[in-house]
Amino acid sequence: MPPLPTLTAKELTTDQEVRWCPGCGDYSILAQMKKALTTVGVPREKLAFVSGIGCSSRFPYYMNTFGFHTIHGRAPTFATGLRLANPDLQVWVVTGDGDGLSIGGNHLLHALRRNIDIKVLLFNNEIYGLTKGQYSPASRVGTSSKTSPGGSFETPIRPLSIALASEATFVARTVDVDVQHLVSTLQKAAAHKGSAFVEIYQNCVIFNDDVYKYATDKAVKADNLLYLEHGKPMLFGKDKSKGIRLNGLTPEVVTVGRDCPLDDILVHDETAENPALAYLLSRFAHDARTPNAFPEPVGVFRTVSKPTFEQQLDARVADAVAKRGPGQIADLFKAEDVWTVS
Q: 26-224+298-303 has which CATH code?
């Protein structure tokens, strides 16, 4: 077996000036994406990045691979066509919470449910950045913005819940400045065959700064994040003394040793065919005002193996050719659904 091709981060860097605001979380995501791709064994000419519209959508300019900067919300559609026409490409979609969950919501959920072998990265800063600070579908209740000066009162979309409900076969969350975790998550998404969806908490320093401070501040993040590890109990806190227990169908935060033994703590199973528990985890939301508040999970929520859209389409075409021959375009034009207008 020939050795896997190797890349360096420098080889993946273009000559384009990176134009994001100083301190933007996109810089970290770009750096970790390059780092992750040096390990996956895919040559540059087999990599493609597709984006829509938004700050995150400049990403293809900064990756020395094939890239497409497409139209608002339609990146999954372009990526679908690209993947079907070029099945040897590894296709990444870069989108944001505004681009991907608003105008692009319909395209996103159908790309995921079809299990097309694309990897979707959703940069979630809970705001519209490029258009200068309007609230987005993911903005929390109370978010003050140019279009919600009194605070948003809309129920925010939970991206992971949408991905799981759409039957994505790989669903994960990570944080822009948690670099080791981010690299590891991107590597796992790259290795997955099928629709992969990764939500990345990303800080917008201009319009929604510190919205994820609870998940990035070293002084408090241990109590606010639950790092999911397959086959291991769901423990969190500085000394791992807190855990998640199911009380019937209701999850609750408990203290190990005081409220229950370790054996009562829920064990994470990212490969479970039924996504019910993964969906339950996707509903956890940090709320510092609530005693025994749930931590927000990061890591792989679900990864399962199913036939991809491409595999099933190829099988359907092969079956048709075997039964009816390769066919001719002219025969299609003259098929039974043709009539003459005199």
A: 3.40.50.970
